[in-house]
Structure to design on (360 residues):
């Protein structure tokens, strides 16, 4: 019994890597993806920078003004295109779900996979992780870093030690040595306040942290954080990979210009629906409800739904409803749309998998 085998998959410098992907001419240049707040031309912060930009000192969270000051003339500043990154992310998350039924998406570019039922030991876990890396590279042309261990904490830390394009396996017998030299404040789950307190107490490394008694930790950090630190420093983390079932699949875009042109809306809706249905199929699900949503020029959001007679994963069937939804939408809501989207919900497992009712 090897216990649990958990993988943490972390896409490398995700937003910036997505930009390199669709603009190959950026490769090799420092790329900085920014979230502009819009108050003044350069107000806002750096969201992600590629490794070339990190080399010259540009990091996430840095004010754009500061990043521009240290940037060379070949540095490319881009405004974040979240819709695009999310569409790439969704395809990758679907791919990851095909490796195990127990998968938890932790953010747009991170997921935990419980491989305990899929592989029998850590060598198997390592092979599976390599397979996943190759699959993401060949289907999406993106690199990721993966950590494999017996729990979420260690896997998250393991994915972080070798980036980009890393694969780090920490077997249970290696956990103590692996963590010992790490900065205690960088244990995943330690917040800024705790980090500061640890350093005030003279605790630098995880090994230092291990020498502190649970009584003192509880007194300093409160009972639950104290115990968490005690366990985490020993590589102990019981947190389960939460298999969160999705309730809907959707896609929203910003229109080139605000409009209420029926054919523009129907064409876009059909294209988006096609992407969404492909996603649903890839996850071996079917849906019953189809929605069209519009965000108007004044930023108010409106939705029209319609349910099909039965669960389906058929694009054509769902697409026939779209013009009806768009017409209803336009007749009920005056004004132009700034953004629009489609969504399918009311999901059910694929027919191939019998539900309890089939046996009733
Ligand atoms: Mg990442």
């Amino acid at each position: 019994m090897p216990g649990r085998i958990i993988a943490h998959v972390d896409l490398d410098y995700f937003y910036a890597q997505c930009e390199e992907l669709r603009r190959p001419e950026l490769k090799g240049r420092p790329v900085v993806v920014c979230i502009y707040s819009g108050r003044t031309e350069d107000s806002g912060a750096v969201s992600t920078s590629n490794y070339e930009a990190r080399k010259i000192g540009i990091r996430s969270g840095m004010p754009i003004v500061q990043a521009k000051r240290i940037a060379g003339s070949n540095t490319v500043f881009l405004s974040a295109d979240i819709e695009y990154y999310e569409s790439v992310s969704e395809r990758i998350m679907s791919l990851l779900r095909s490796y195990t039924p127990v998968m938890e998406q932790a953010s747009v570019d991170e997921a935990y996979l419980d491989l305990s039922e899929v592989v029998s030991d850590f060598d198997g876990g390592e092979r599976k992780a390599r397979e996943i890396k190759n699959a993401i590279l060949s289907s999406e042309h993106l690199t990721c870093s993966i950590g494999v261990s017996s729990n979420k904490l260690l896997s998250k830390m393991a994915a972080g030690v070798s980036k980009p394009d890393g694969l780090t396996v920490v077997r249970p017998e290696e956990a103590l040595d692996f963590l010992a030299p790490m900065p205690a404040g960088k244990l995943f789950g330690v917040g800024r306040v705790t980090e500061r307190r640890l350093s005030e107490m003279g605790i630098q490394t995880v090994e230092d942290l291990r020498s502190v008694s649970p009584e003192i930790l509880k007194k300093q950090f409160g009972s639950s954080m104290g115990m968490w630190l005690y366990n985490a420093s020993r590589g102990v983390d019981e947190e389960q990979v939460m298999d969160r079932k999705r309730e809907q699949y959707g896609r929203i875009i910003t229109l080139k210009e605000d409009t209420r042109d029926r054919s523009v809306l129907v064409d876009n809706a059909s294209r988006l629906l096609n992407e969404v249905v492909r996603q649903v199929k890839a996850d071996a699900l079917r849906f019953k409800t189809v929605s069209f949503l519009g965000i108007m020029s004044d930023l108010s959001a409106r939705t029209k739904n319609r349910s099909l007679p039965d669960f389906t994963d058929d694009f054509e069937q769902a697409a026939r409803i779209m013009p009806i939804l768009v017409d209803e939408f336009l007749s009920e809501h005056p004004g132009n749309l700034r953004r629009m989207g489609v969504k399918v919900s009311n999901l059910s497992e694929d027919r191939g998998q019998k539900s309890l009712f089939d046996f009733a």
